[in-house]
Amino acid sequence: MCGILAILNIRGTEVDVRAKAYELSRRIRHRGPDRSKIIVLEISPGQYHVISHERLGLVDLSDKGRQPFQMVDDENIIFMQNGELYDYWDVRSELEKKYRFSSNSDTEIVGMLYKEYGAGNFWNYLNGMFATVLIDMNKKSFQAGRDHIGIVPLYYGFNEDRSLFLSSELKGIHDQVIEVKQFPPGHYIDETYEIKRWYNPIWHDFNHIPTGEINFQELRDKFVEVVRREIQGDAPFGLFISGGVDSSIVAGIVAKLIKKGEIDLNKRGMRKVHSFCIGLEGSPDLHFAKMVADFHGFEHHSFTYTVDEGLDYIPEVIYHTETFNNTTIRASTPMYMMCRRIKALGIKICLTGEGSDELFGGYLYFHKAPNRVEFHQELIRKLHDLHKYDLLRANKACLAWGIETRPPFMNKQWVEYVMQIDPKYKMINAFEPQMEKYILRKAFEDLEHPYVPQEILWRQKEQFSDGVGYSWRDGIIKRANYLISDQEFSQASIKYPISTPRNKEQYWFRQIYSSYFPSESAVLTVPFARSIACSTEKALEWDEAFKKNTDESGRAVLAIHNDAIKEIIQINEEPSTEDISKVQEHFQL
Questions:
Q1: pLDDT tens, 122-173?
Q2: β-pairing, 47-55 with 3-11?
Q3: Cβ neighbours of residue 161 under 8 Å, at least 6 residues apart?
Q4: pTM here?
Q5: Coiled-coil segments, which residues (predicted)?
Q6: How many CA atoms lie within 13 A of 342 on its CB side?
Q7: How many CB atoms neighbour CB 489 within 10 A?
């Protein structure tokens, strides 16, 4: 993962154009602290394409892996990428029969795939997470695009001269363009300035409700293969373990791959796998994460912070994550603090569990999904928006410190496989015990050779911003109430007519955000729909109580479990205190 910046069709002198690119690229250097490189290309007298790359060395750590690349066989093909291509070695074995390589960098295959499959078509052969820019000086053309689901961020905009600006982060170009926007995932843009879709899977169709059967062994095998591919690289890696089922499954797979000799720690300069978790003292995540790490013999780091320390970081967290969304900031702050500590250990890559809840309906509000159709359609909505929330957080909060995060659950082939499973199998009442993400948990239940301790495998979902400690959310609200007066908040709609804050926490976050990114278009890059426990606004229709309590915290839907208790113990009347205690203890409620 790195930082990229491009200015296409810009007029001026070569010296001025290069200076402009350097100035803007320096704003995102935290994403690639290892090396920088700029290439300026004159496409007509006084008109240029310029691309700049800020490198975080992860694959081929030598200077040969430095970007932007020029093809060995055609130096008029110039390209750069922010991200990783996971099937690099498989693809390379075929491509090197026809093309010459100058490095072992996964990015080098981009130019060859472009030559092999042509403009527009080659995007379908990029398997990984990426934001990519390619220039073909033979045709004076270019291509720029983003991965299938938006794991890697990309922003764009045009200035008054219709020069196209592209940047890994908003801060790179927000004050250079008339209107800055997030580049849509699964799309690319070319010299016509038309944004075109390259990724159009069947799961994008709201009217298509899949009917695929569930095969637990196949489900397990496919995800193990995903993790095996995504752990590849040359730099030391680590694991984010929250103590929830998703990150714990990833950790369990890595542990087994090491035992089988499929991961060579010595080659990566590692003695042991380092795992990481952060929370307030005594928080549930710290306890369960350590349990997972101890189970596998990892070198575990439990970082703690105080509410006041977290509050101190919020302004810089908003600057780096480029959002004022409540749940994103609540969760980004401890992650940002954790990555500062990880950086000091020399770790550059960490695997995470992001995306599983959107594939399997893991959030607590899914208990209220009325039927399989609405359940599946909500999954589609969640996946379409994930680049604005958890994927944005995991990328930017970590790359602020030069740490790349890889979310295996968002692998393109894996997403397509899981989204063809009949949603009836993902619903809470599909199996016993009734629990969110049952099919994922069951697929990785191996009593003889466990991937995950049983207690963790069947632990209830905790949102990251809750799992680090409930007093974190309460502390944010208390600080916002102190900083923002009633009089000030009463003027919210006047001061912020677009995405008007609905509470003082939102007002405080928005106030900080607008001090960095004041334009209206920058505000519109941030999602602002109503939500309960990370739902989309549409899902509020599932329950009258949702409409009255639109709090993003997972605590907002704890009552759902009391309703579920009635079904679990098969009674119609309200459960007794003894019944509730018994079932809540079982489900870690």
A1: 999 999 999 999 999 999 999 999 999 999 999 999 999 999 999 999 999 9
A2: antiparallel
A3: 9, 10, 11
A4: 0.92
A5: none
A6: 33
A7: 17
